[in-house]
């Protein structure tokens, strides 16, 4: 088997392990992975617009709007009018959204630490460098 084939196989295997380990985590909320990603994007990029969120998620604006409406309705995010341009509405996390995001990432981080505990410090450093290179 060529190195490229081994790499592809290893990436698929790693993806499966990640889905199995993280997919089996029980959260106290019913948000999808995409919704959690959206909360994280909004937290990391304060005051983003719908257009920016749909671009980040790589979905069409109507699809992003449906997801955002759901998150607004359930209280995880809120719409805030732009003070400089009334045509623009930005999105921010609510306290509930912040709490869910913190819980979710804490739980996932615990699983990831367990997965990566098999690596030594040098392996982890190399993996970080590789992932930074290809992102």
Produce the secondary structure layout:
Blueprint: H1 3-23, H2 33-44, H3 50-57, H4 61-73, E1 77-81, E2 89-93, H5 95-116, H6 121-134
Antiparallel strand pairs: 1-2
Helix pairs in contact: 2-5, 3-4
Helix and strand run:
HHHHEEHH
Biggest sheet architecture: 2 strands, antiparallel
Shape: elongated
What amount of the residues lies in strands? 5-15%
* Helix-strand category: mainly alpha
> Count of helices?
6
Structural account:
The structure is a single chain. The protein has 135 residues and is mainly α. It is 67% helix and 7% strand. A two-stranded antiparallel sheet has the order 1-2. A hairpin with a 7-residue loop joins strand 1 and strand 2. Helix 2 crosses helix 5 and helix 3 packs across helix 4. 12% of the residues are buried.
How would you summarize this macromolecular structure in one to three sentences?
67% of the residues lie in helices and 7% in strands. By secondary structure, the protein is mainly alpha-helical.
Output the keywords.
135 residues; 7% strand; two-stranded antiparallel ribbon; elongated
